[in-house]
Amino acid sequence: MDLPTRAEDGHTWTTRLWPAADAQAGLFWIPALGVPAGKYERWAQSLAARGVTVAVHEWRGNDTSSLRPARDSDWGYRELVATDMPASLAVAQSAAPGLPWMLGGHSLGGQLAVMAAALDPEAFAGLLLIATGVPDQRSFRGGQRALIAIFARVVPLITSVFGLFPGDRLNWAGREAATVMRQWAGTVRTGNYDNVGLPGDIEQAMKQLRLPALGLRFTDDWLVPEASLDALFGKLGEGRHVRESFDAARLGDRADHFRWMKTPEPVNATVAAWIRAQFL
């Protein structure tokens, strides 16, 4: 189901909804950087078949979005989290009323989900974090640490030259807004979210969260080392925090950053059981 969505600043896009028969809960989902909402269709259909209604948000600048990044068309975490996500959530809640809603995300989407929950903790019943964590350079080892540290330091230069991040040319993510990438790079360098432009003290707000959370990590996912997921959990307040790890044998496929989207059943068996347990 396609839900036309409009933010208060005039930005428009389509929120995708997969309703479940006799749904126990809804899951509001934030994609990874550069990944269109439609790429999660197989995963969302699988989860809906297990009784969870799934609404997938579309990033500003992606696919159905009315905007594209450019030197004169820029945005950061504030627009993504505080402007766009509440609008998508509102249309999803209107289309599937009466459900408790979990909030989740993949990769950078998982980080944004935690920030959104911190800004409006009463809106959600729990957090689902898949293949995500704080991209702190200190979470990586050896050559990977050096690579990501160097990359984070050249991102501001790249965005200054091009007026955006030309990920399509660099074979990493896609064409992204300059401010989004500078803010991401700042977290790589510092390990915190102090300078991402969100209202108030976002780090302190995250520390006040008391939501149950499930974090899923994949053993072949070099983009999210175990220490990265641990760091994201470490920013949350007290709560029922559960970690699950998937290797190739458990997933039935290569256990990397994206493959679970094509082989969703093992992941969704765990996710659906965890969601059901929150309401017993």
Descriptive report:
The chain is of the alpha/beta class. It has one domain (2-135, 198-277): 3-Layer(aba) Sandwich (Rossmann fold). The chain is built from ten helices and ten strands. The chain has helices spanning 41-48, 77-95, 108-119, 142-162, 167-170, 178-190, 202-207, 226-234, 248-251, 265-277; strands spanning 2-6, 12-18, 25-30, 52-56, 101-106, 127-130, 165-166, 175-176, 213-218, 241-246. It has an eight-stranded mixed β-sheet with strand order 1-2-4-3-5-6-9-10. A two-stranded antiparallel ribbon has the order 7-8. Helix 3 links the parallel strand 5 (101-106) and strand 6 (127-130). The chain is globular. 46% of the residues are buried. The model has no long low-confidence stretch (mean pLDDT 96). InterPro entries: AB_hydrolase_fold (IPR029058), Hydrolase_4 (IPR022742), UCP037442_abhydr (IPR017208). It holds the Pfam family Hydrolase_4. Residues 34-240 form the Serine aminopeptidase S33 domain.
